[in-house]
Amino acid sequence: MLTLASRLRALDDATLRRTIDIRMVSATGIRDFFDLAEALLEPTAIQRVLARLDRATLAVLAVAGELSQGTEVGTASAPSLFDLAERLSELAGSPVDVAEVAGRAAELDSLMLARLTDGRFSSYPAVAAQLLTWPDLGLPTALELASTPAPAALASVDTTDTRFTDRLAAERAFAAVSSIAELVTELAREPARELSRGGLGLPDTKRLAAVMGVELEFVPSFVATAARAELIAHSDGYWNETEAGEAWLLESTARRWATLADAWHAALPPDVRGILARRPGVSWGDVLRSFVAWLYPAGGQWMDDRVTEFAEDAELIGITAHQTTSPAGASVLAGDLEAAVATMAAALPATGGAVYLQNDLSIVSPGPLAPSIDSRLRGLADVESRELALSYRITANSVNRALAAGESAESLLDFLRTVSLTGIPQPVDYLIRESAARYGRVRVGPTDPMESPAQAYVQSDDAALLSTIAVDQTLASLGLVPAEGSRLTSRFPSDVVFWALSDARYPVAAEDATHEIVHLRRHQLARVVPVDAPDPAVTLVERLRAADGGEGQAADAWLARQLDLAIKAKQTVVVSIAMPGGVVVDYLLEPASVGGGRFRARDRRADIERTLPLSSIISITPAP
């Protein structure tokens, strides 16, 4: 432990923080480097990190422990990398490259499980001891780690299966993109509240499931997928659309899918990504699980759960289909996103840009629409059907919504002329022009601060319309009261009043303090803000440095720690003392107390009590 404590103390702060992070050390109870070394060498801490190592790396560690028995860690007596490679080759029955052993030894060295110095490698005794307990835990020995071959190769996929997988994956990709587009659009219209215990409430879940056209149990998966791609974000207790989500809605279907696939791939833990990348175009299923169990022999349920979680998400977005990697998914796993986009684009349904406008004010698309056209249509019409062929309906309220967003009668009619296969029916033309003429008959704006407590006014030249608003029971919560100048005032902000009137289907426009019409956004975009939490590793490193003294203090602290342990265990120790003139004397002592740079002990041979300075101690070893 002293060797590891000294090594930890010599690390720079960045490397020390990395060690604390990758070993997942809890700062509780750690006061100095000796406590940290002790925490790293605890059996549970060692087993936790061993569970995350692959078979070949564990074999190097186990053989190092076997060959370095009785040797001092990090000394010239430790086995060389050539010794390790030779022993591993003997166990495996096939040559093992020294360079590969060196790479794995360097990884183990960085994990503080062993020491690699000048081409010599040895594990810490506590690590070697933990590996010796593995047979009792049903885990492999050093021989089994090095000699057990991998399971049978994963099943290859024939041409017929590839075509089927490609088609099914494309269907799933299209369905996922469509559902998430509906999710993002709906959250832009009305955010969903996150419960304090986590997850969405049942009313919001039902609302989103209906809009997305999926079963209730799939809503959390789609929300998680959209959040991972930063299309939506959790802000102030609600899930909202983000700026990235707003831009994503205007991209092509293949590009939308690529965003989801790339986010899925980026979120893969490095160990899982490495497994999947080595087998990108094969069937997954039970054979993959067998391979994972062989590759990570101590991984157990932890590794299986990690693979399962991302396998389920892969099925959801079309990376795989029936546990078989799709051609596009194989490109994602290989890190070639552009090839994946090209493959998926060829398999996805073609999108169009033409619709049928009907006299009953409905709009019908013969197939999937280009996202930019779909988005524009949603701005001026309500969606009625979300099947492969979308249908919309134009209403006075939907036109008013488009006008409030900055459209005009001419811009709407010009757009419809470019996409309609049936021209613009007279009822559609009349509704849009008539709605535009009525738009702004009611104005909502902020009041002068001097008019407090009123924050907003409602104004109209149509006295009858204003009177109707004043007595409308659906607006009673606004607390509208008559004021001078043909207006009503409310104690609520102008945006709240505006959207209440808009929902009540009044031809309302918002204006600023200078009476210029402004276009309001109902809900603000959420921002993906990284959690600015204090790094516990940084705090722990600062504490360790503050508690650390000079070399003499560190040595005294270590000796005091050893003597404390001997006192608690009532253990007799052999203490080597440097006497004047360079003579070293060994005393067989039973320590009694330590303090003030000195310790008191009973000399078992002379049967007297001695008090000795810690600075004179060369070494302390347990008595035989």
What does this structure look like?
- With 624 residues, the protein is of the alpha+beta class.
- 49% of the residues lie in helices and 15% in strands.
- The chain contains 27 helices and 22 strands.
- The strands form six sheets. It has a six-stranded mixed sheet, covered by helices on one side. Strands 21-20-19-18-22 form a five-stranded antiparallel sheet. Strands 8-9-11-10 form a four-stranded antiparallel sheet, covered by helices on one side.
- The chain is elongated, with a radius of gyration of 36 Å.
- The relative contact order is 0.07.
Return the average pLDDT rounded to an integer: 85
Q: Terminal Cα separation, in Å?
A: 20 Å
Query: Order of strands side by side in the largest beta sheet?
Result: 14-15-13-12-16-17
Instruction: Determine the strand fraction and express it as a percent band.
Output: 5-15%
The main sheet comes to:
6 strands, mixed
Low-confidence segments, given as residue ranges, are none
Report the structural category.
alpha+beta
Number of strands: 22
Rg for CA atoms: 36 Å
Shape: elongated
Count of alpha/pi helices? 27
**Helical amount:** 40-55%
Helix and strand layout, with pairings?
Layout: H1 2-10, H2 13-22, H3 33-40, H4 43-50, H5 55-67, H6 81-92, H7 98-110, E1 114-117, E2 120-123, H8 125-132, H9 142-147, H10 159-189, E3 192-193, H11 202-212, H12 219-228, E4 232-235, E5 238-241, H13 243-248, H14 253-267, H15 270-277, H16 285-295, H17 300-317, E6 320-321, E7 324-325, H18 327-333, H19 337-347, E8 356-357, E9 362-364, H20 371-380, E10 382-385, E11 391-393, H21 396-404, H22 409-419, H23 426-438, E12 442-446, E13 456-459, H24 463-471, E14 481-483, E15 487-490, H25 494-503, E16 508-511, E17 517-518, H26 536-547, H27 551-569, E18 573-578, E19 584-595, E20 598-603, E21 608-613, E22 617-622
Parallel strand pairs: 12-16
Antiparallel strand pairs: 1-2, 3-5, 4-5, 6-7, 8-9, 9-11, 10-11, 12-13, 13-15, 14-15, 16-17, 18-19, 18-22, 19-20, 20-21
